[in-house]
Design brief:
Aspartate Aminotransferase, domain 2; seven-stranded mixed sheet; Aspartate Aminotransferase, domain 1; globular; four-stranded antiparallel sheet; binds pyridoxal-5'-phosphate; 3 domains; about 475 residues; about 45% helix; 15 helices; alpha/beta
């Protein structure tokens, strides 16, 4: 064996061992970390030594020292934020992506990753019921997927207003008026900010956080005629899991000539489940969509997906060339033309592996199971004295309260300190809440039973104190 071969062998073998031990510990270990970042800096910081360290030693040190500071996010008992686990096929594919070390920006340079990502993209459009000829970009996450869709929107709206955005920038150009539901995800505002579009107009929502189409119509009617308009809708509200009424809201937006973008970070996946299709009905009528593969699909971080119907707008906004060179529509895009980055890892490969390992039925089953577990948790918890389920549990999110805000905060803190499960505290519709997000393929009956016990015990402890 050559020296480099031996170095790779021993470092990778060590990594496999550590990875397997970590994954095997998920069933039993406390979910939360036992050390803080500040404490761990002692192990990882200090001056960089002059001499290097053998690769295998580096790997062993990393794994052992990091362990107490790791959150068991791959565990079926992790219910925080909206953070999915990792499927075996996608984790292994992700390792291959690192080993292959392809700079996945150009089709001709890395044909295998381009073909794999294109196949994954075609499957995704089919599964999610989106236009089969739309372009796909594999971004770092939904924040950047949304940003990408909004960038395409900005390009198209400015071009249609007769403004050369690339040459002139935004200054002096027509103002794009942007509209969001009050309960949109904050990263939509971030995307608009990156794009220089300013703060959006907020439109009232109903009790589950769904945008009100009548209010949207009214808000759109207040801007001057022929002003460029951009409407952002949402599939999957962070707190309730609710979906905007796409058919009505998109019809309203269309009547005003607006571009419609949908943030479907975790919710767009409902479209893959026949019984849940009503939630996303009409969503295919939008212009662009952002979603995540690292949430509901359970691929490793990081992976978001941008989908844009108007391929000219997307490639013009993201491609690294002047607008006068963008004539080709119809052919496949180079990967760098559909995402903000030029160089990137082939993060669509773990998506392909996840879809290939699950199959169409497996994807539907995985999403259906998450919803089933969320409803099971909501039903069991609602049966406990002193627990209020605040949302209609139509998808994967459950928002709870325990009487007043102080009690809810105390119960949340107890649950996190207890360690059997991990759930996020948040604030929704002027109340402190405990939010459960079921996002992990491996969450099973034992996990939901432990979760109910943990909530019950925490509430009892708070009441008894
Ligand atoms: C998670 C999330 C985002 C942001 O996605 P990242 O992958 O964290 O960048 C945007 N919108 C919604 C609804 C989300 O749940």
């Amino acid at each position: 064996m050559s020296a480099p071969e031996e170095d790779y062998r021993s470092a990778l073998t060590a990594a496999v061992g550590h990875a397997r031990r970590w994954l095997a510990s998920q069933d039993e270990r406390p979910v939360g970390p036992s050390r803080t970042a500040a404490e761990l800096e002692v192990d990882f910081g200090g001056p960089l030594s002059r001499a290097g360290t053998p690769a295998t030693e580096v790997v062993d040190y990393l794994a052992v020292k990091a362990e107490p500071g790791l959150m068991a996010m791959p565990s079926g008992r992790f219910f925080g934020w909206v953070i999915g686990g990792t499927l075996p096929a996608s984790l292994a594919a992700d390792w291959l992506v690192s080993a292959w070390d392809q700079n996945a920006g150009m089709r001709f340079a890395t044909p295998a990753t381009a073909a794999i990502e294109e196949a994954a993209g075609t499957w995704l459009l089919d599964l999610l019921g989106l236009p089969p000829n739309a372009d796909i970009g594999f971004t770092t996450g939904a924040t950047m997927a949304n940003f990408t869709g909004l960038a395409a929107a900005r390009w198209r709206l400015m071009a249609d207003a007769g403004w050369d955005l690339e040459a002139e920038g935004l200054t002096g150009g027509p103002r794009i008026h942007t509209f969001v539901g009050i309960e949109r995800h904050d990263t939509i505002d971030l995307g608009l900010r990156y794009l220089g579009l300013g703060r959006p107009t907020v439109v009232p929502v109903d009790g589950q956080g769904r945008i009100d189409p009548v209010e949207l119509d009214r808000a759109l009617g207040l801007v001057p005629a022929r002003a460029p308009l951009l409407v952002c809708l949402q599939a999957g509200n962070l707190h309730s899991g609710a979906f905007d009424p796409f058919t009505e809201a998109i019809a309203v937006a269309r009547a005003h000539g607006a571009w419609v973008h949908v943030d479907g970070a975790f919710g767009l996946w409902a479209a893959a489940v026949p019984e849940l299709a009503a939630l996303t009905a009409g969503v295919e009528g939008a212009d662009s969509w952002g979603t995540d593969a690292h949430k509901t699909l359970n691929v490793p971080y990081d992976c978001g997906i941008a989908v844009v119907r108007d391929t000219t707008a997307l490639r013009s906004a993201m491609g690294v060339h002047a607008s006068y060179l963008v004539h080709e529509t119809g052919g496949p895009a180079d990967p760098f033309e559909t995402v903000p980055e030029l160089s990137r890892r082939a993060r669509g490969v773990p998506v392909w592996a996840a879809l290939k390992s699950l199959g169409r039925d497996g994807v539907a089953h995985q999403v259906r199971e998450l919803v089933f577990r969320a409803r099971q948790l909501a039903d069991r918890l609602a049966a406990l004295d002193g627990v209020e389920v605040l949302n209609d549990v139509s998808y994967t999110q459950v928002s709870l309260a325990f009487g007043d805000d102080a009690t809810t905060r105390a119960v949340t803190a107890r649950i996190i300190a207890d360690g059997r499960v991990w759930m996020s505290g948040s604030r929704w519709q002027d109340r402190d809440i405990l939010r459960i997000s079921v996002s992990n393929w491996s969450t099973d009956d034992d996990d939901t039973t432990v979760a109910v016990d943990a909530v019950r015990d925490a509430l009892a402890a708070v009441r008894g104190s």
